[in-house]
Amino acid sequence: MNEKRNTWIQTGDTIRLLRLQHKLTVAQLAERSGVSIEAIDHYENNVWRPGEEIMARLATVFGITAAEFANGVSILYEEDQDVLLVSHLGSNRIRVIGRIKMPNPIDGGWEGNKHV
Q: How many other CB atoms sit within 10 Å of the CB of residue 61?
């Protein structure tokens, strides 16, 4: 049985997971979105919350809409260690906007979390 667990996440967590799903470093995301590395770090750590303009830039890089950030994003954990990022569409419908294979801590953890 493929059991799934649902967890609500904050905007910064969503940004980090989408960045990792797209195999981008913080520096690469900063360059592609026109946002500073420091700002991306602060967003991912939920120190700052990006405004509408920044959300739109990040959404463009990730290939999703800014509304998908604002309307609620959840993660679903699967037994095989995949993480699904899903956007809520209403009427009990969701859209998968990302999939990440969870790293094995023995193999060195999140490679995508490096700045350069």
A: 19
> pLDDT per residue over 66-110, tens digit each?
777 766 567 777 776 778 888 877 777 788 888 877 766 555 554
pTM for the structure as a whole: 0.68
**Cβ-count burial of 38 within 10 angstroms (0-12 exposed, 13-18 middle, 19+ buried)?**
exposed
Residue found under tokens 């859209």: 95
**Alpha carbons within 13 A on the beta-carbon side of 7:** 12
Written as one string, the DSSP assignment of 52-112 is HHHHHHHHHHHTS-HHHHHT-EEEEEETTSEEEEEEEEETTEEEEEEEEEPPPGGGTS-GG
CB atoms within 10 A of CB 34: 10
| % pLDDT > 90, the chain | 29
Sign of CA dihedral 100, 102, 107, 110: positive
